[in-house]
Amino acid sequence: MIKDYRVSIAIPLCLLILSIVLIGVNGIPKSIDITGGTEITIKVNKDIDITPLKEMLDGKATVKKLKSADGYYIVIRCKNEYVDFVKQKVMEFFHVDSLSKLDYSEKTIGATLSKKFFEEGFKAVGFAFLFMAIVVYLYFRSPVPSGAIILSALSDIIMALGGMSLLKIELSSATIAALLMVIGYSVDSDILLTTRVLKRLTKSFDETVKEAMKTGLTMTLTTITAMLILLIVVKLFIPVAEILANIATVLILALVADILNTWLLNAGILKYYITEYKKSK
To answer: Which residues cross the membrane (predicted)?
Structure first.
């Protein structure tokens, strides 16, 4: 099944490096949960062209239009120092002298609170990853299989972040929670593979991997299918629920990465461990 473990390891590692480059070059957009700022939401009953509004705001705010069953929502996000300017331009665009005449709502998050969200969110991801790594090492008691699982899980997270950078998905408290879930999903399939390989040494390596793959891919593809259905439903029927769409997309990206990292990267390292490393000891 895996003819050359070097090729099997190289493919996901190249994608990992590409993800790191994407993150470094493009960065990852951040929501106001992370950066702080103001979000203004205006409900309108008909579809309107928001291009003139974007031009009026002159790059000081982002504007997007979301469709829902009961109308359209125009969402404007800006830094807190531009709020007065943005409100003035919104009134000019809608030809009103007061925002109270619009179906209008506003959410503001201060810089201190948003910074705290960001710090605590990444602490949660970091601690979850650290404790996962400790448990994996204590269970397998061997640096190579344990290291392969940890590297695979780390690659899943970085590739998911790379996908977020490519697709311009905002880093927010919701997507950080999705990254936390990624750790559990990725470790699940990696432990399945590693346990099967190390405990069934009487069978050939390829045969054991095929058996593990049947179970592992079934679990992963089932979850991907569920997330795809959620994403389609949100996009078609409730696009205003953007948070759900972002969570589903991040999980899909991570699970696709997990297929590559488990069945190429981890399996390749395990083949090296079984066929070369252990024999040299």
So the answer is: 7-28, 121-140, 147-167, 173-195, 216-238, 244-274
Any bridge partners for residue 68, and if so which? 71
Beta bridge partners of 71: 68
CA atoms within 13 A on the CB side of 55: 5
Distance separating alpha carbons of residues 220 and 124, to the nearest angstrom: 24
Residues 122-180 pLDDT 10s: 788 889 899 999 999 999 988 999 999 999 999 999 999 999 999 999 998 889 889 88
H or E stretch including 71?
strand 71-78
- Residues facing residue 44 across a β-bridge: 72
Are the C-beta atoms of residues 121 and 151 closer than 8 Å to each other? Answer: no
What span, in angstroms and rounded, lies between the C-alpha atoms of 79 and 174?
20
Cα–Cα nearest to 122, from 187, 177, 184: 177
Q: What angle do CA 254, 255, 260 make, to 5 degrees?
A: 95
Structure pTM? 0.87
> 21, 7, 19, 27: which is closest to 256 by C-alpha?
19
SS3 118: helix
Say whether domain 5-31+112-280 belongs to CATH 1.20.120.430: no
- Give me the architecture of the 37-109 domain, per CATH: 2-Layer Sandwich (3.30)
Q: What is the DSSP letter of 30?
A: B
**30's tokens:** 């951040």
